[in-house]
Specification:
Layout: H1 2-11, H2 16-24, E1 32-35, E2 38-41, H3 48-60, H4 69-84, E3 88-97, E4 103-113, E5 120-126, H5 148-167, E6 173-179, H6 201-208, E7 219-224, E8 233-235, H7 237-242, H8 244-256, E9 263-267, H9 274-282, E10 286-290, H10 316-331
Parallel strand pairs: 5-6, 5-7, 7-10, 8-9
Antiparallel strand pairs: 1-2, 3-4, 4-6
Helix pairs in contact: 3-5, 3-10, 5-10, 6-9, 8-10
The structure holds N-[2-(1H-imidazol-4-yl)ethyl]acetamide (AHN) and zinc ion.
Residues 150, 183, 185, 199, 224, 271-273 line the site of N-[2-(1H-imidazol-4-yl)ethyl]acetamide.
């Protein structure tokens, strides 16, 4: 933007003809902008109202806890939306074993664009919601949460990106993966034996058995809790170690688009999230864009795993910042 502004200032004192030539000296100036020697492609405009409506629709089904009717109905909705937006849709149904032995009817949903292309980027989010508000008052510990932010926000942003891709495809192929059963991890109140790897059951399954054999992508971007007001996204520790280049690309893009307030270029903690298994099992470097709150008691935002994770705490400005940044990244991949 700055470059455009400078150009405009330079053009101002000139006569109409000169102004025209000033404008036309830039080939396709609405599309591209010179940044040093590299051409920057302006991505289409992400629509936060649209993303918000997709979050609202998910929450409208009720908590998307695996094995529930709301979960089934929401899964059908997500697969139908991806199809409607022109993706080739793959579904995986698998029985996943929870921390307490409960068998979850898990369902991963993947929408592929340009499936024939080898140059690909994976975008992902979890679509289930937590059966427990175990960060809330004790009386709510066994209450399923709406998961407006924790779950639905990332999916809502990705559905809007799917809609945008249908209207104007980026150069590379894109896969949008909605992972199931991320949030059925061992609850705080559980008295039984501790077990490892109880979170992210859907992405663990997909990592071992991807929707297409030998699936590969250049890198992945995971969206987790991307709808909170004044959200701050720090360099998540595991992403920083395993997906450093992609991570820098994202944070630099955010800065360039004016979203540096959200994408803070400082180290955050390390989180066990779907990106860990995308990297561990498929060797795809994957970056977690996740809202940390350094001042909060949990390290996450104040509504995290509480019954307050509702639509009223979803902020369109944050959705815009995240959606436009991710679009900036994918439309600039060649
Ligand atoms: C754990 O709490 C172990 N990981 C955070 C991942 C998560 C949960 N993201 C959303 N809900
Ligand atoms: Zn959660």
């Amino acid at each position: 933007m700055r470059i455009f502004k400078n150009l405009w200032v330079m053009c101002l004192p000139l006569a109409g003809a000169a102004l025209l030539s000033c404008g036309s000296s830039k080939k396709n100036s609405t599309q591209t902008e010179e940044a040093g020697t590299r051409t920057f492609i302006q991505a289409p405009a992400f629509n936060a109202d649209s993303a918000y409506s997709y979050i609202d629709a998910q929450v409208g089904f009720g908590p998307r806890v695996p094995n529930s009717a709301a979960h089934k109905a929401c899964g059908d909705y997500l697969a139908a939306q991806l199809r409607r937006f022109g993706a080739e849709v793959y579904e995986q149904n698998a029985e996943l074993i929870a921390y307490d032995g409960t068998i979850l009817k898990g369902r991963n949903i993947v929408g592929a664009y340009k499936p024939e292309t080898r140059k690909r980027v994976l975008l992902c989010a979890h679509w289930d919601s937590r059966p427990y508000a175990d960060q809330d008052e004790e009386k709510y510990h066994r209450t399923p949460i709406d998961g407006a932010n924790d779950g639905a926000s990332g999916v809502g942003v990705l559905l809007e990106i799917a809609r945008q891709i249908q209207m104007k495809a980026p150069e590379i192929g894109i896969d949008i993966a909605f992972f199931d059963a991320e949030d059925y991890g061992i609850p705080e109140f559980y008295k039984g034996m501790y077990k490892q790897d109880t979170w992210c059951l859907g992405s663990q399954y997909w990592g071992r058995i991807p929707h297409v054999s030998d699936y590969k992508a250049r890198f992945g971007i995971l969206l987790d809790m991307v709808g909170g007001k004044d959200a701050t996204f720090f360099y998540e520790g595991y992403s920083a170690r395993t997906a450093h280049n992609a991570m820098k690309k994202i944070w630099n893009m955010a800065e360039r688009l004016g979203y540096g307030r959200y994408f803070v270029k400082e180290e955050g903690g390390e989180v066990t999230d779907d990106h860990v298994y995308v990297n561990r099992y498929r060797q795809i470097p994957c970056v977690d864009i996740i809202h940390y709150d350094m001042n909060g008691s949990t390290g996450f935002n104040p509504t995290w795993h509480t019954v307050d994770d509702t639509m009223e705490h979803i902020d369109k400005a944050t959705l815009q910042a995240v959606g436009q940044t991710v679009m900036g990244v994918i439309y600039n991949e060649q």
